[in-house]
Design goal:
about 270 residues; alpha+beta; single chain; 9 helices; ribonucleoprotein; two-stranded antiparallel sheet; ribosomal protein
């Protein structure tokens, strides 16, 4: 029986019912056909249809009958939601249908083409990389350049004797270049509006041996400096504003009478 089932085709298997003992010889055999399993052809058809519908490919041009049916459905408002134009484009097409094909193209272009508006930037943030320095030492340089014009801050770092001044100077030059090229800020008005220092992750401690079987743990601090560049007053404008403020504080003497006799004079020579 098993050997016979191995030779049955994939479509179906045939099982023969043998006659029982003592039965008559003229009783015919009964042949049973049953489905062994579902064919994969049904799933292959669905897989082929799914791949054909959703695989990106070059869209074939519709024939005349399909295009006419789509046009008629659009006029009756029965088109597919994915093919339906937006409300603005539809209104432009309906308004241009009465003016002609040339006006229709112009109206559609006016709706679809929007004027390019570049983004206006007013500040630029930049920072140094994380390096080995105490945040207290680096914060001194941050206070030195805070509120200064960018060129003056670079000049301060150029003549500073601190070891981290060269790194801060290079960072300021790069920040100025990026602010001018990428965000169209005026280099003559750039100032260091803010400067702050952030701590970084500390490296694992290093054992420092000492005398008499003692030891200590040495940890090196890491930090980085961040600056915020903005457009502000130039150095000349600040000097002019300071001069104006000082002149405003000057109070002239009022008009006084000079013929008033001196009353209660102080002590003086008596001869």
């Amino acid at each position: 029986m098993q050997r016979g089932l191995q030779n049955v085709s994939r479509a179906s298997r045939l099982a023969s019912a043998a006659p029982r003992a003592g039965a008559r010889a003229h009783v015919p055999r009964v042949t049973l056909a049953y489905e062994s399993r579902r064919h994969a052809s049904r799933f292959q058809k669905f897989q082929h249809w799914f791949a054909k519908q959703f695989t990106p490919d070059v869209k074939e041009a519709d024939n005349t009958d399909v295009a006419e049916a789509k046009r008629q459905a659009m006029q009756e408002g029965r088109q597919n939601i994915f093919q339906a134009p937006s409300q603005e484009v539809a209104e432009a097409q309906r308004a241009a249908a009465t003016r002609g094909e040339g006006a229709q193209d112009a109206a559609a272009a006016a709706v679809l083409e929007k004027p390019y508006r570049p983004k206006m930037h007013h500040e630029h943030k930049y920072s140094t990389g994380t390096f080995k320095i105490s945040h207290r030492k680096l914060n001194m340089l941050g206070r030195q350049i805070a509120g200064k014009p960018i060129d003056y801050a670079i000049l301060q770092m150029q003549f500073s004797e601190k070891r981290a001044s060269s790194r801060v100077r290079n960072m300021l030059k790069t920040a100025k270049d990026h602010a001018v090229r990428y965000k169209n800020l005026d280099p003559a008005k750039l100032i260091v509006s803010q400067s702050w220092v952030n701590k970084a992750e500390t490296e694992p401690g290093r054992i420092e041996p000492r005398g008499r079987a003692h030891f200590g743990i040495r940890r090196h601090k890491k930090s980085r400096m961040c600056v915020l560049l903005k457009e502000g007053k130039t150095l000349e404008e600040e000097k002019a504003a300071e001069r104006k403020r000082k002149l405003k504080r000057v109070i002239s003497a009022a008009a006084t009478r000079e013929d008033v006799p001196i009353r209660n004079p102080g002590a003086a020579w008596a001869w």
